[in-house]
Amino acid sequence: MSGLIEKALLTEEQIQTRVKELAEEIERDFNGEDVLLVGILKGAVVFVSDLMRNMKINVSIDFMAVSSYGNSTTSSGVVKLIKDLDTDIKNKNVIIVEDIIDSGLTLNYLQKNLRDRSPKALKICTLLDKPERRKCDIPVDYCGFEIPDKFIVGYGIDYAEKYRQLPYIGIVETK
Fold it and tell me: Which residue range or ranges hold the Phosphoribosyltransferase domain (predicted)?
């Protein structure tokens, strides 16, 4: 991989507009009830921060870290829990906040893991969705953008820990 960004897929403005819309959708669905956003580290940190700042209901935040990629561009299929929640989610409205849903293997694992903890509600919010690559059926409640099967970086999403700081989503040249 040359490490060069071929082109922008989503601009900073497009992302910020959609994040605000997602925050409004969540507010409507939870009708003033408190919500716990569970950001999946490290990729979702920028998205979950912006989402939280756009919400007008009471929002708590916690994080989980899982790995199925390492420094590769494809999922290994083996999910490893690196950091668990600090919060008890029993009887809470919980939204898993992901940067991207690709194969769905990681999110399938997380969803089962969190459902076993008896939340009041468990929803999924992702900035990006690559349905072409799905290996398991994942019901997505809030989706920012459906994108093609391209390797992307930016807005928290990395390649070997680089490019997270970009305010837009770029397609990486893989030639």
Answer: 9-159
Q: Known catalytic residue: 29?
A: no
8 A C-beta contact, residue 97 and residue 51: yes
Q: Which domain holds residue 120?
A: 5-172
- The pLDDT, as a whole number, for residue 1 is 37
77, pLDDT greater than 80: no
The pLDDT value given to residue 3: 53
Long-range contacts of 7-14 (CB under 8 A, 24+ apart): 7/170, 7/171, 8/168, 8/169, 8/170, 8/171, 9/147, 9/150, 9/152, 9/168, 9/169, 9/170, 9/171, 10/145, 10/147, 10/155, 10/168, 10/169, 11/168, 12/167, 12/168, 14/145
CATH number of the domain that 157 lies in?
3.40.50.2020
Q: Which of 147, 30, 32, 53 is nearest to 99 (CA)?
A: 147
pTM over 0.85: yes
Instruction: Kindly state the average pLDDT of the residues 49-65.
Output: 97
**So what's the pLDDT on residue 173?**
82
Strand partners, 157: 154
Pick the catalytic residue: 50, 99, 102, 129?
102
